[in-house]
Write a structure and sequence with these properties.
The protein is built from eleven helices and ten strands. The protein is an alpha/beta fold. The N and C termini lie far apart (46 Å).
Length: 300
């Protein structure tokens, strides 16, 4: 496996991202060890808040979440998925699969031995994060789910179909512009550059290119059986589950009701839709931070 590593200089002077880098090596059973980066702020003895990003973002997406949550006394962790951010990037699209992503993050989770976790997940952070919950339900105390879903071979709408087609056809995969297009507010040029920083050229973007075609939206997709098994576990998960979706997300914004219907812990919770598009973390960071803090406080 050929592996690329973005030079550290690419991440110099990013706006609002002063966090120390932490690394561990992670493994999938059929792949070489890879270096995975994560942000880890706040008191190490506190119960963790795990912030999982998706496509084509990285932990920079949570730069406005980490300081206020850490200041409130929480341990806040924001990993970069393999292929993104400061984590290693296998160079071939064939090196990426849904199951490898789940295995890499499972290894990271168990190496850090995280427990009593509050999970906030969005986009692929949900596709992977919900699999982690299904595999390790005792490690999770509560879930906050935003603009994501875990399909089992069904089409999830024309918005996703359009995104998948664009992601494969565009000659240059402009991550910063893609994120900007998924927000209500206009990102600054410096913020757009920060989302481009992990990818010095197209060779670094194999994971970003591959993610859209890994979503199991037809019956013959890989990982349909694994996601079906995960749903069987989630349909027994009775710890608190809150959905908070952007009301202007044209790709996934309609799927919160399915999560509410299927996971028992979602019953009776104060679910909401907020004035945001797909990347709600960029549109409404303060509102989401308050929501996470209040949701934790409601069960203490």
């Amino acid at each position: 496996m050929k592996v690329l590593r973005t030079p550290e200089a690419a991440f110099a002077d990013l706006p609002d991202y002063p966090f120390a880098a932490h690394y561990v090596e992670v493994e999938a059973r059929d792949a070489s060890p890879l270096r995975l980066h994560y942000v880890d702020e706040g008191p190490s003895e506190a119960a963790p808040i795990l912030l999982l990003h998706g496509e084509p973002t990285w932990s920079y997406l949570y730069r406005k979440f980490v300081p206020p949550l850490a200041a409130a006394g929480h341990r806040v962790l924001a990993p970069d998925l393999i292929g993104f951010g400061k984590s290693d990037k296998p160079a071939s699209r064939d090196d990426y699969s849904y199951e490898r992503h789940v295995a890499w993050m499972s290894d990271w989770l168990t190496q850090l031995d995280l427990n009593n976790i509050t999970l906030f997940c969005q986009d692929w952070g949900g596709l992977i994060g919900l699999r982690l919950v299904a595999a390790f339900p005792d490690r999770f105390a509560r879930l906050v789910i935003s603009n994501t879903y875990m399909p089992v071979g069904e089409n999830i709408g024309p918005g996703f179909d359009g995104w998948r087609a664009f992601s494969q056809a565009t000659p240059e995969f402009k991550s910063g512009r893609i994120v900007d297009g998924g927000c209500n507010r206009a990102l600054s040029s410096a913020e757009i550059a920060a989302y481009d920083a992990p990818f010095p050229d197209e060779n670094f973007k194999a994971g970003a290119r591959q993610f859209p075609v890994l979503v199991p939206v037809t019956p013959d997709h890989l990982s349909v059986a694994e996601n079906s098994s995960a749903w069987a576990q989630l349909e027994r998960f009775d710890k608190p589950v809150l959905t908070c979706f952007g009301n202007q997300d044209k790709v996934l914004g309609h799927l919160d009701t399915e999560i509410q219907r299927r996971i028992p812990g979602a019953k009776g919770q104060p679910h909401c839709r907020i004035d945001a598009s797909h990347f709600c973390q960029e549109d409404q960071p303060e509102q989401l931070v308050a929501l996470i803090r209040n949701f934790i406080a409601a069960q203490v």
